Amino acid sequence: MSYSVGQVAGFAGVTVRTLHHYDDIGLLVPGERSHAGHRRYNDADLDRLQQILFYRELGFPLEEVAALLDDPAADPREHLRRQHALLTARIEKLRKMAEAVEHAMEARTMGINLTPEERFEVFGDKDPEQYAEEAERRWGGTDSYAESQRRAATYTKEDWKRLQAEANEWSERYVALMAAGEPPTGEGAMDLAEEHRQHISGWYYECGYEMHQCLAEMYVADERFKAFYDTMRPGLAEHLRAAILANAARHSS
């Protein structure tokens, strides 16, 4: 049994372009070709693709994925053991980070010294205190919470307006990027993900790449945060998550 590139793209949730790229760089070369020269993938190819996508999900650069999969000393059981260890470590890291990280959207709600009229002028009909109590309950003892609250308490109305304008302008550019069909692993999306990280660091608290990846997971795991981004454009939360992970991998390689 063999499958066309379109079928495999559908199975794996990747684009045909991605599969072509993997073939071009020798990462996943189809085991068969049709009489017309079209790519045909067999079961062994699908197994390898599954391994590739797993390591990519964990942020491994393609070069490292190739080295891992082509290691002659590693058998399928060794890959499973490595994957289990990586997943266990990632789960533990995310658990700890979830306890210590302040989400950027929630950070906006803390220490806002504005009159009711000024709040409406800056935030419109969105309540900037909507998640303040929950944020304090979940992260009140963390350094990130303390830093974001300290900064927010110093901001004037004009500061908040500049912050909102930057966020809105970024959102418009990200929506336009998605409308143009740009993939989350493309340079444009990764650059916007980097801007997103720097916006958090500049206005709220220092947000390193590991922390940014934790935020990315929260953007899709928590329905409120997912809805916040998806109201800009359906699917934006997932797209941004992938862009953040790709950007972190780019800066770690």
TrEMBL record:
Pfam families recorded? MerR_1, TipAS
The residues covered by the HTH merR-type domain are 6-28
State the protein's name.
MerR family transcriptional regulator
